């Protein structure tokens, strides 16, 4: 009888801890942000880079680059800052690297750091996305 009492309260403590842990897990999966943070935390190869995008002009450029990169070959997230002409990129360094990301942006028709835009892709961009001197 004297031995069973401490074991019983230890079991109850474990049960309470288990319920509390499940409750907090449910909360974080309800929230998209904390879920993606959990996924990011599981990826030890996550890296961040900031790129100079000197030729971006407008919101269409932003969408073209963000949609053209996100989810492709290890690129986790892309945010283009039109005002400062910068790209913020989170990527999996085991799957891609900065030169590959620059090449991918260049293939969309935009300069990335010192990597020049692919001229064919650049010519296919809408007028508003071209440099002012190239607009017709
Ligand atoms: Cu544009």
How is this structure best described in words?
The protein folds into two domains: 4-39; 45-134, Alpha-Beta Plaits (2-Layer Sandwich). The protein has a three-stranded antiparallel beta sheet with strand order 1-3-2, covered by helices on one side. It is elongated, with a radius of gyration of 24 Å. The chain has helices at residues 4-30, 32-42, 59-69, 98-107, 119-124, and strands at 46-52, 75-81, 86-92. The protein is built from five helices and three strands, in the order ααβαββαα. Bound molecules: copper (II) ion (CU). Copper (II) ion (CU) binds at residues 57-58, 60-61, 128-129.
Proportion of strand residues: 15-25%
| Sheet with most strands | 3 strands, antiparallel
Question: Low-confidence segments, ≥5 residues, pLDDT <50?
Answer: 18-38
Query: What letter string, H or E per element, gives the SSE order?
Result: HHEHEEHH
Shape: elongated
Query: Do you know the CATH architecture of the largest domain?
Result: 2-Layer Sandwich
Quick check: average pLDDT? Answer: 81
The name of the CATH topology of the largest domain is Alpha-Beta Plaits
* Strand ordering within the main sheet: 1-3-2
How many β-strand runs? 3
Q: What hetero molecules are in the model?
A: copper (II) ion
CATH class of the largest domain: Alpha Beta
| CA-atom Rg in angstroms | 24 Å
Distance between termini?
92 Å
Class by SSE composition: alpha+beta
* Fraction of residues in helix: 40-55%
Number of domains: 2
- Total number of helical segments? 5
């Amino acid at each position: 009888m004297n031995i069973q009492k401490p074991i019983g309260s230890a079991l109850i403590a474990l049960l309470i801890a288990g319920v509390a842990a499940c409750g907090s897990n449910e909360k974080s999966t309800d929230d998209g942000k904390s879920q993606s943070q959990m996924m990011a935390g599981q990826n030890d190869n996550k890296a961040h880079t900031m790129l100079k995008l000197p030729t971006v002009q407008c919101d269409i450029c932003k969408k073209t680059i963000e949609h053209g990169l996100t989810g492709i070959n290890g690129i986790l997230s892309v945010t283009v800052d039109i005002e400062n002409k910068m790209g913020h990129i989170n990527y999996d360094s085991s799957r891609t690297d900065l030169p590959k990301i620059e090449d991918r942006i260049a293939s969309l028709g935009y300069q990335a750091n010192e990597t020049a835009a692919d001229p064919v892709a650049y010519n296919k961009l809408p007028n508003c996305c071209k440099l002012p001197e190239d607009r017709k």
